[in-house]
Amino acid sequence: MIGGQLYWPSRCSYHMPSSKGLQVWAEVKWSSLAVVLFFVLAGFTPEARANATVLLEEPYSYDGALAGTGHTAVYLTRVCAATPVVLRRCGPGEHGVVISRYTRIAGYDWIAIPLVPYLYAVENTEEVPLYSDPKLVAFLRDRYRRAHLEDIAPDAPGGEMPKGDWYQLVGSSYDRTNYGFEIETTPEQDDALIAWLNSRPNVKSYKVVSRNCADFVREVLDFYYPKSVSRGSMADLFVSTPKHAAKSLVRYSKHHRDLEFTHFVIPQVPGSVKRSRPVRGVLESLFRAKKYVVVLAAFHPFIGGGVITADLVGDRFNPTRNSVVFSVKGDPDAAPTNEEKRFYLKELQTVATASADSDASDGGITWRKFVEKAQPQFDKEGHPVLQAPDGNETVELGVTRRDLRSEDAPAELQRDLLVSRLKQTLAHSRAPRISSNELRADWQLLEKIDEAGQKKPCKKSDQGDQAVNQRTEGSSD
Q1: pTM for this model (two decimals)
Q2: What integer best gives the mean pLDDT of the chain?
Q3: For the chain: N or C, fewer Cβ within 10 A?
Q4: What angle do CA 138, 285, 253 make, to 5 degrees?
C-alpha cells in the first residue's frame, strides 16, 4: 500500500503471576521499550513496504479524439531521482518516482519525476490546488520546469515557456484520470533496478509499434517479475498498449496471491480543463469509433468484420471496477457510496441556488467573471493563488485547501469555488472523482466558509450523518 505501515512488538500475554513470569514479562516490556527508544533516539523508523505500480493514464486532447490508447508509466515507492535521468534510493519522507518513456524530450529514452510534481506540478502536497484552469496549470508547470527541468526543457527565445512534450512530465492529474495497479517489491529488487537503469544508455529509442511507453513499463515489470507483463494480444494486434500492461499485471497477481497487490484511481483535478476519456486497446478504439469501422468496412468488409469480431471476443478489462481513491498523504481511501452522493447532491443544489441569488444581489465580481479575468500568482508563502481586477482593487483567491479560507478573499468566491468543485466530483462518472473522507472535508470547509461569510448552508441532517458513516468497498458508480 501507499505509504507503508509500521510494525511494533506487541505485548506478550501471561497467566501465571509467578515471580519468574513477572521477571520474563518485565524483560519483554523493557526490551520492547528499548527497541522503540532506539528508533526514536537514532532517528530511524522500520522500513515501510515498497511497491512497483503500473500507472494507466486516460487519453485526452488529440489522443482521446483519435487513438484513445492513453499513456502508461511506472511508479516506484522506494526509488527516487537524483536527477531526471539518474536514479537513487529514497530518503525518509520521500514519495518515490514516476518513470516513463517519451518520444521527444531532450533525446532521452526515459525521464524520472518525483510523484507529487508528476501528478500536480507542485513540490509538496500543501500546494495542490482544489480547482484548476488552463492558465493555472501552465503557470505551475512552468515554475517547476524553471526550477528543475531547465536542462531538459530550456527557455524559448525571449525567456518564454518552450513548446514541446515536456509538459507531460508534470501535472498529469490536471489532464487526465490515472489508475494505479501496484505489486510489492523488495529492497534488493529496487537496488538492482536502479543499477540496471543507471548503467544502460538513456538515449531516445521510441518506436510506436515496438518500443513505446507500454514496452518500457513491460520491461521494468518483467525485470522485477519475469513474464509478469506480456507484450500484447490479438485484440491489440500484438502491440504493447497501456491497457494491456495493466491487465497483464492484474492477471499475474491472481496467479501469485503471496504478493501484495491493490489498485486505485487518481482522479483528475476538478476545474475547467477538459475531462479525459476512457482508455482503450487498439481494436477497441477502432470498434468504438464508428467512423473508422465504416471506412474499413467500405474498403474491405472482411477487415471491418474482423475488427468487430476481435473486439467482441477480447477481454473486457475495466480499470475502474472496485477502485479505491488514491491519497498522496496516506493509504487509498474508499469512494463515496451512492447514498452519500445523493445526499450531498441534494444539499449542494440548495447551496448553489443560494449562491446564485447572493451573487446576483451583491453586485460584486461573480465567479464566472473572476475566472475569466484571473491570472495565477504566488502569495508570500509561495502558494498558488488567483488574482483578478475588480474596479480599482485586486481580488486574490487562494486555491489550496489551507489558503482558501483567507480573510482577505470574498467569501462568495471561496464558496463558489467549492461549489464548482463539488459539482464535478459528485457528477456521475465511470470512476470515483473523490474519496469519501475528502468529500466530507470539502463539505466541512464549505460550511466554515459560509459561517464566516454572509450565509450558512443547510446543516447536515441525521440522515446525512448516517449516509457518511456507511461505506461500501470500491466504486459507487
Answers
A1: 0.81
A2: 81
A3: C
A4: 85
Closest of 262, 102, 235 to residue 179, by C-alpha? 262
Q: How far apart are the first and last CA of the chain?
A: 23
Nearest alpha carbon to residue 421 among 183, 129, 2, 20: 129
In this predicted structure, the answer to whether residue 124 has a pLDDT above a threshold of 60 is yes
Pick 315 or 168 by higher pLDDT.
168
433 Cβ neighbours under 8 A, 6+ residues apart: 267, 268, 270, 424, 425, 426, 427
Q: How far apart are CA 322 and CA 217, in angstroms?
A: 23
Cell of 317: 478489462
Task: State what percent of residues in the chain have pLDDT above 90.
Answer: 57
Give yes or no for residue 234 having a pLDDT over 60: yes
Dihedral angle sign, alpha carbons of residues 94, 270, 334, 262: negative
Q: Which amino acid is at 402?
A: R
pLDDT at 355: 67
CB 77 within 8 A of CB 91: no
Q: Which of 178, 2, 5 is nearest to 77 (CA)?
A: 2
Return the SS3 of 46: coil
Distance CA 15, CA 470 (A): 40
What is the pLDDT, as a whole number, of residue 331? 87
Instruction: Check residue 161 and report its DSSP letter.
Output: P
